[in-house]
Please model this.
Amino acid sequence: MLKSMTRFLLISVLSVLFFSCKSYQVENAVKKELPASDYKNRYFSNPETDYVYKAHIEVYGNQLSGIFIAKRMNDTLHRVVFTTDFGNKLLDFELSENDFKVNYIMEDLDRKMIVNTLRDDFRLLLKTNHEVQEVFESEEYLIYKSADAKRFNYFYENKKDNKLIKLVNASKSKEKVIFGFESKNSTFAEHVTIQHKNIKLKIELNQISN
Amino acid sequence: MKRNVFLVFLFMMSLTLFAQEQKMSASEIAAFKATVEKETKTIKSLKTDFIQYKHLDFLSKDIETSGKMYFKQPNLLNWQYTKPYQYSIVFKNSKVYINDQGNKSTVDAKSKMFEKINKLIVGSVSGNMFDDKEFSIAYFKNKDSYIAKLTPKTATIKKYINQVDLYFPMNDATVSQVKLIEPSGDFTRIVFKNKQLNVKVDDSFFTN
Model:
């Protein structure tokens, strides 16, 4: 009795695991030979450029507006500042792949959940070099897959003009964060969106021509 | 030739010396405060263009935004960015109305932060900040301006602002430039241009 009970439980647990966890798959794409070991996201890679954007943040129904500023300080380090429209700083981060420093954060925003979410978003947005594990090809895109701790990043590059259009951060089974890019010249994104799938957070960035 | 270069050098040196700030004497301060306070009392309305420069040490260029500002006694204020994007914020009847490129929202101005922003902006432009218990003030002058340097007294403001510099041109008792310096040393500089006092400012300027 106990034995069959255990087996029953095991089967049901396993079937739940198997059937509910369809792995995240790139749609309508076939695997390709690996052409390069690194994928370069060039949108925030030039240390000479001040990356300045008007930012809209929608978080659980609340609207926030301000100015988003990023700069590549050296090969691995980026500085990120978010200010209100009046110019006063709301946050000021320094981040690289392994390091993270909060230079300033306004008291109201100083919650672990907020800081960690923004840290992870900005880190992925700004990081230039990503080691490629697999490459897929669809009609429209070349898709570069890269491992990121327990998750994976998928870089969708338009075959037509080699522009990075979309970056999907996913667990084994689900999309977690989707980054969208609009770019005229493939080295600067005039428009960026960051959409979260498991929390109600959307960040929209529009370039400010200075 | 050499002598000419030397003369030019000397001339430039004297210019730098001239541009330096000096502390104002007690009598100068008293006279200056009296003039500004008298002028401030006559302000019923104010209309001005402004340019805002956000300076961050790590950037190669300051971030420049600009627009218009309208103020009407006792407490109507519209701070409106027109370049490089449209964003305006109206303070009216203890409410804050925001129009962000067509996206409208309202915030209760009882929030302490907005109350302080309102007070700071109105005080900055009109120059009426001398009675404030929130700041201690030091007075300086250079070649063409009087400068009031405000240091916050309360811990709440100190977290955001290290110092506020108000520039009053010598021929004008209202502020021409505000510099808000953060604890990090980064600052926001706002320069007012085409300022008009006591012209008709319609109430429609304060709807967002």
Observations:
- Chain A touches chain B through 28 residues (CB under 8 Å).
- The domain at 29-207 of chain A is CATH 2.50.20 (outer membrane lipoprotein receptor (LolB), chain A).
